[in-house]
Amino acid sequence: MGRDPFVVVIARLRRSPGLTSHEVRQGTVALAGPLDLAGIDPGRSVVPEGAEAVCDVTLQAFRGGIDVAGTVTAPWVGICRRCTAGVSGQLRVAVHERFGDGPAASDEMYPAQDDAIDLGLLVRDAIVLELPMAPLCREDCAGLCPQCGADRNDGECGCVAPADPRWANLDVLR
Ligand SMILES: [Zn+2]
Ligand SMILES: [Zn+2]
User: Fold this and answer.
1) Among 51-55, 58-62, 104-108, 114-118, the least confident range
2) For 51, which of 20, 26, 123, 156 is 20 to 30 Å away at the CA?
3) Residues 166 and 122 in one domain
4) Per residue in 7-33, pLDDT tens?
5) Domain carrying residue 159
6) Are residues 150 and 136 in the same domain?
7) Confidence of residue 160 (pLDDT cuts 50, 70, 90)
8) In this predicted model, which residue has the larger pLDDT, 59 or 168?
């Protein structure tokens, strides 16, 4: 196993509170759940397997920890929630977090070691929170016809709705 690209040595910053350090780190991120389109449902998105996230941040030491501010970017792929076409994009998340010492760090801060912090924790959380929950191939995607399954983005399929009594009942409920 190689060195983790998201682990930043902070010994020098620790010795000089107020000093800042600009870090750009890039690497793959371990996320829970599927990392590619196989195995995800329409309306979901993932970071593709093996794709790299970039963490571009400024670090600054304070008493008891390190302040981290900047951006996290990562590619994502998903399946349009209306027509099931493949969709892709780029996440860009503004982050501002703290890494702190000791057990008090647990709730509001990520844990810092004496001489290093793991930006991978922050990168993973930023991505998980910002992955599109219900992606669309385009804002006005017409979706699939519920009756014949045709992609209505390609034109009208000719179905006359609601021909099926089940659909009529749904209309009454509305
Ligand atoms: Zn669509
Ligand atoms: Zn149809």
Assistant:
1) 104-108
2) 20
3) no
4) 999 999 988 888 899 999 999 987 766
5) 144-174
6) no
7) confident
8) 59
Among the bound ligands, name the one nearest to the CA of residue 143.
1
Pairing of strands 45-46, 65-79: antiparallel
CB-proximal residues (5 Å) to ion ligand 2: 145, 147-148, 150, 157, 159
What ligand is nearest to the CA atom of residue 156? 2
Q: Indicate whether 130 belongs to any domain.
A: yes
CA distances for 22 relative to 28, 59, 97, angstroms? 20, 6, 15
Question: If you measure from the C-alpha of residue 35 to the centroid of ligand 1, how many angstroms do you get, rounded to a whole number?
Answer: 21
* 77 and 162 inside one domain: no
Which ligand minimizes its atom distance to the CA of 150? Answer: 2
Same domain for 102 and 70, yes or no, is: yes
Sign of CA dihedral 60, 66, 97, 104: negative
Ligand nearest to the CA of 155: 2
**146 alpha carbon, closest ligand:** 2
Is 67 found in the same domain as 123? yes
Asked if residue 101 and residue 47 are part of one domain, the reply reads yes
The total number of structural domains in the chain stands at 2
Distance 161 CA to ligand 2 centre (A): 9
Would the pLDDT of 37 be above 90?
no
**15, 17, 19, 22: CA torsion to nearest 10:** 90
Quote the ligand 1 centre to 149 CA distance (angstroms). Answer: 13
